[in-house]
Amino acid sequence: RETLFWFNVRGVPPKPEDDNVLQLAMQSQLKLFYRPKAIIRSSSDQPERKLTAERNAGHLTLRNPTPYYITVAWLGADRSHRLSGFREGVMVPPLGSLPLKAVLPAET
């Protein structure tokens, strides 16, 4: 399975010699994925199509049976009907699940 590492970088400027100086500290956060050779994807592999959703008491749980992280950028019936409470860019871990706080409409 893939492993996710967060790489945090912070640039802090040195103490200024003058009194009237504007200083900015910069911080960046990068996602780094380590993928072992044993799970190198082929061009025909489509892990995003294997992601499943399970309804439970009006809430939704995403299940990922693949060894890859899957980032979900959008969730809804169509582009104009986004699922309320869904946060963009959530990641479903490899061989794991992710309960969402989004509330589903009642079944018909």
Describe the structure.
Strands 3-4-7 form a 3-stranded antiparallel beta sheet, with no helix packed on it. The radius of gyration is 20 Å and the shape is flat. It has one domain: Immunoglobulin-like. The protein is built from no helices and 7 strands. By secondary structure, the protein is mostly beta strands. The model has no long low-confidence stretch (mean pLDDT 85). Strand 3 and strand 4 form a beta hairpin. The chain is 0% helix and 40% strand.
- Quick one: CATH class? Mainly Beta
Q: How much helix is in the residues?
A: under 10%
Low-confidence stretches: none
Helix count equals 0
User: How much is the average pLDDT?
Assistant: 85
E-strand count: 7
Terminal CA distance reads 38 Å
The proportion of residues in beta strands is 35-45%
Largest sheet: 3 strands, antiparallel
Return the CATH architecture: Sandwich
- Strand neighbour order, sheet with most strands: 3-4-7
Order of helices and strands: EEEEEEE
Using the CA coordinates, give the radius of gyration. Answer: 20 Å
| CATH fold title | Immunoglobulin-like
Number of domains: 1
Global morphology? flat
- The structure class reads mainly beta
Family: Belongs to the periplasmic pilus chaperone family.
Pfam families: PapD_C, PapD_N
Keywords: Chaperone, Fimbrium biogenesis, Immunoglobulin domain, Periplasm, Signal
Organism: Salmonella enterica I
